[in-house]
Amino acid sequence: MSRIGLLNMAWGFLLIFMAACGGAFVAINATDQFMAGTMAPQWQSMLQASSHGHTSLFGVIHILLGLTLNYSDATLRQNIIKSAALFAGSFAMGPLLLIRAALGPTLSTEVNGILIGVGLSGALAAILLHSIGLFHRIAVRA
Hints:
Blueprint: H1 3-36, H2 42-68, H3 76-103, H4 111-141
Helix pairs in contact: 1-2, 2-3, 3-4
């Protein structure tokens, strides 16, 4: 197994751990809002819950990428680029989404929103390219 595969798996398990720890804060905020009967912080709660779920999801995707890198015909450089793009998505949908939640809703485009979009686009491209690489390997070696 390659080091980049191990790095993806280690990062994935760390993301799952961080999301699990963060889930306690999401639950506390939801309980506080319910007890107070307020609807104003609903935006923040929704994005915090989304960040929690996406961080867990990206952790699993990192692990799966690490486990399947050896099955793709991609070069080491391509695997590093895919891993970096997936990391950008993990960062965008984790910490950057939490920052976005704290900023509150806005109609204007701000830098954080652009960074989230770029990071998520990179992750989606990495997932698609890896999937294509796996299908290519099936077609070539079948």
